[in-house]
Amino acid sequence: MPILTVLNNKGGVAKTTTAINIASRLAGEGKRVLLIDLDSQANLTMSTVGQDGEAHVGHWLNGEKPLSEVVRPYVPNLSVIPSSKALDMYSKLIGSEEDYQFKLKDRIDGDNLTKLYDIIVIDNAPSLTTLAYCSLVAATHVLIPSAPEYYSFAGIDNIMQSVANVKKRYNRQLEVLGIFFTKYHTSYRKKVANDVVEAARETFGDLVLTSTIRVNASLEEAQMMRQPVYEYAPDSNGAADYSKLVEEIKTRL
Ligand SMILES: Nc1ncnc2c1ncn2[C@@H]1O[C@H](COP(=O)(O)OP(=O)(O)O)[C@@H](O)[C@H]1O
Ligand SMILES: [Mg+2]
């Protein structure tokens, strides 16, 4: 069962947008999908089920509340384990434990989530710290959204190193599913953006996906309305681009 972690230590590169849209697309196709929000900014939570502050992923990770009290339904076939500002405190607590790296993996195994769902998608904070490490240890695949700019390559290198490190020490099955470019301008910046994709291919080879996600306001609006873009604007470029991305990802899973 694929466990996909969406990772980039930069903010604003569409990690959350990607997690929501991949998950809701797959759910729309009939897959049973779980989204886990591991970012204390809780953007994914706010853009899907909203935040009620009652129960969050920190409670679940720390064994204070069972899954049933934490997980919330979003749309058919898609549930969310929400986050909260309080996750920062839990992250510190968890990070001070021995073998903290296995915290998420142990919960996923302990609650038999690989039987309950067909795919799990994890959204991360813009950092490579405690909980992001936990997600790499629990995941089968890493998906890396990136800004289509040269300076972002150094960041991707960092992620690759972390992935290699986790793969060697904790999780042999971990693979990079792909790198892809988001907020891709099709007008005046087209040339530069294309050059960046070409350069990325020279550096990262086949790990660079052919799908790119164009700048599209519907993606942002859908999140504000707490609706999957497939419901809010099914004919938008955003819906089309994420559908293509999902098709490409499926060939690699
Ligand atoms: N392709 C896109 N076109 C326009 N806006 C986008 C696109 N992808 C993401 N956004 C918006 O950009 C902002 C940052 O995206 P987000 O997914 O929250 O990034 P991250 O999780 O990496 O910090 C959000 O307001 C989001 O709605
Ligand atoms: Mg985010």
Automatic annotation (TrEMBL):
Signal peptide: none annotated. It comes from the Bacteria. Residues 3-176 form the AAA domain. InterPro entries: AAA_dom (IPR025669), DNA_Partitioning_ATPase (IPR050678), P-loop_NTPase (IPR027417). Pfam families: AAA_31. Gene3D superfamilies: P-loop containing nucleotide triphosphate hydrolases. This is ParA family protein. It comes from Pontibacter toksunensis.
